[in-house]
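[Automated response] Your request has been received and processed.

Submitted sequence:
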Amino acid sequence: MSTGGIALLLSVTPHRFRGLTTIGTIVFILDLILFILITVLIATRFILHPGAFIRSWHHPTESLFIPTFWLTVATLVSNMQQYGVPSSGPWLLVALRVLFWTYTACTFLSAILQYHLLFTGKPHTIQSMTPAWLLPIFPVMLCGTLASVIAGSQPPHQGIPIIIAGVTFQGVGFLVAVFMYSNYVGRLMSFGLPSPDTRPGMFIAVGPPSFTALALMEMANDALIIFPHTFILGTSGLPTAQVLKLLAVFVAIFLWSLSLFFFCISLVATLCSLRQMNFHLSWWSFVFPNTGLIIAAIDIGTAIGSEAILWTMSGATALQVGIWLVVGCFHARAVWRRDIMWPGKDEDHDE
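Generated structure:
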């Protein structure tokens, strides 16, 4: 999902150079290859070890990372829109529409099932609370982000329901995340910071407000394209899409500030323990949530015409690509040394 996030970021970064789209396409293809490879390997694990699939759903830690499958699917579908639609026929628009509604149904049902299992399984304590508790609802929230990417290219009679669904499920995901934030801040106040190795996971909290901000702004942009002049009954004198655009910009700034707060808290906590940290899969949280922070800022900068914001985010894009490469190298090193992807070394450890 982090690789897909980088491909998406490269497709929207404001200051471009010749070949950047090609680089983004290569990263997207790499993301697709990694997705297929990892999915096959995980499926092989479940086939070779009967019962492992069910145990994963019931494990208090490992189960929290099941939704990353759907997060990867969301980035793949988004990149299909960004890199595939400009060079493909209308069949891809139909395929994206089908994928959106399938993704929406699957992620919502998956979130309901997973939270039911978490509520009825091994009790959790506030001391053990991490932002990973947000992950089951994260894919549902990205329905709005996905809608914001594909709705503008759809026919109006298809795109408008996609926007309505996007707002609906983005709202569900964000509100559940807000409820979780109270537990998260309470845990930090009562028990202090997480262990150094898992502190990068604190960046997960950056995701919900930033992805909600960018989803609202992009859906408002799509509304300018496909909404009729008046969409809400009883408001015949008001251009619906323009009102949505105004609201989206200021709400996005409001939400982005919360993401910035969690980013700064997570950054300081990570820097303070940098020398004590060993690689953990949570290191990928350096990439995906912060990608949403950057894209949301790009949308805000574009909306208010701020070149300062746009140039800053262009620099942040380059930095983010560098972080992605560094985390990838540390991941490969950890696999080679058997520090991860080994029995009891990952999220399948006993608590």
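Summary generated for your ticket: The chain has a mean pLDDT of 88. The longest helix spans residues 156-191.
If you did not submit this request, please reply to this message.
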